[in-house]
Design goal:
With 367 residues, this protein is an alpha+beta fold. It folds into three domains: 145 residues, Gyrase A, domain 2, CATH 3.30.1360; 88 residues, Alpha-Beta Plaits, CATH 3.30.70; 71 residues, Aminomethyltransferase beta-barrel domains (Elongation Factor Tu (Ef-tu), domain 3, Beta Barrel), CATH 2.40.30. It has eight helices and 21 strands. 41% of the residues are buried.
Length: 367
């Protein structure tokens, strides 16, 4: 996609005025950083920051069979959540590969809000509509309002304290992955969700585009909240081990391979269930790993090779960065064989030892 074809969020001019460095991200002009990615990262971990993530896809699926359709097309079990709750989930194809990961909000028993990745908006629409037609669900309606609503993420241990003055909804009382709909900054019917992609405490708010600038500015009037870009968002999500579609997840990778068995519920019926069940039972699939590098100054990057002691390539890095909290290189990746344990990272033909660890890389107290 050329620069002339890139989309802009409603807040594009605000980012320019704030001095943001703008880059192409999923077909949108997005702020990479405003000051430095390190400063923005640490603000979210220690204080508060705000992200414009309006590029994300936003669908409303309604109708009496909407729940049944999404239950079939995804691996997690929506029957386990109540109205007012959200759930992390993934769409899969006929072979069990991940079409996209998404968050599903249960507005009512017949109305769902689906938040999908920006790069997959058109693909997801076609996939859902294909199955609506295939199953003759004449009552289901899919509405794409991605370009009509903005999404702001306010994240950090003091974020809720700072923005509480803007709403009468008791933000601290919203449980994790729950949401409320009410007034925010004098705007009615704002959806406020206790979710995020950083691991730090915070909320995400959904607002019509016409009010986005007003709310953005109201929040930034709280001087202790700083604007943050996608560079810090990436390092923050990596410290938690959150997967990113297009890097750690793709249509050739199943949720079992991606370490997402916890959102794969075999007690329900879903597309490619038998394939995933067989894969899990056999244990013959590539191995998702998370690792740290103890050697100072060595940072894993996307696409780097993972090698064995004899320098044979045995896997690859899908996401890597420097962790400002650990002050070490951290990474996610895949090994092509479950039984391999002795692993090194290849950086410019040098063999760098890595230490495989459990996720998340850091523990955050959000009390």
């Amino acid at each position: 996609m050329t620069e002339n074809n890139l989309k802009k969020t409603i807040l594009y001019e605000n980012h320019i005025r704030l001095g943001a460095k703008m880059v192409n991200y999923s077909g949108f002009y997005m702020p990479l950083q405003y000051t430095s990615s390190l400063k923005e990262h640490m603000s979210v971990r220690n204080n508060a920051g705000i992200f414009d993530v309006s590029h994300m896809g936003k669908f409303i699926l309604s109708g009496k069979d909407s729940m049944n359709l999404i239950q079939y097309l995804t691996t997690n079990d929506l029957s386990k959540i109540k109205i007012g709750q959200a759930q992390y989930n993934c769409f899969i194809n006929e072979h069990g590969g991940i079409i996209d990961d998404l968050v599903v909000y249960k507005i009512t028993e017949k109305k769902l809000l689906l938040i999908v990745n920006a790069a997959n908006i058109e693909k997801n629409k076609k996939w859902i509509n294909h199955h609506i037609k295939k199953n003759a669900f004449s009552d289901i309606e899919l509405i794409d309002f991605s370009s009509e609503y903005s999404l702001l993420a306010i994240q950090g241990p003091f974020s809720l304290f700072y923005i509480q003055k803007l709403t009468n909804i008791p933000l601290q009382k919203i449980p994790f992955y729950h949401f409320e709909i009410g007034e925010f900054a004098e705007i009615q019917k704002v959806l406020i969700s206790c979710t995020g992609y950083t691991g730090s405490k915070g909320v995400e708010i959904y607002i019509p585009n016409e009010y986005a600038e007003k709310i953005w500015n109201k929040i930034l009037e709280i001087k202790k909240i700083i604007p943050c870009g996608i560079a810090s968002r990436n390092s923050l999500r990596l410290e938690m081990g959150y997967r990113l579609w297009g890097k750690d997840l793709c249509e050739k990778t199943t949720p079992i391979e991606a370490g997402l068995s916890w959102i794969t519920k075999f007690e329900k019926k879903f597309l490619a269930k038998e394939i995933l069940q067989k894969q899990k039972n056999k244990g013959e699939y590539k191995k998702f790993i998370s690792f740290v590098i103890e050697e100072k100054g060595k940072i894993p990057r996307d696409g780097y090779s993972l090698i064995d002691k004899d320098n044979n390539i045995i896997g690859n890095v899908t996401s890597g960065t420097f962790s400002p909290i650990l002050k070490k290189g951290i990474g996610l990746g895949y090994l092509w064989n479950q039984k391999i344990n002795s692993v090194f990272l290849s950086i410019r033909k040098k063999k760098i030892p890595i230490k495989m660890v459990k996720l998340p890389f850091i523990n955050i107290k959000n009390s």
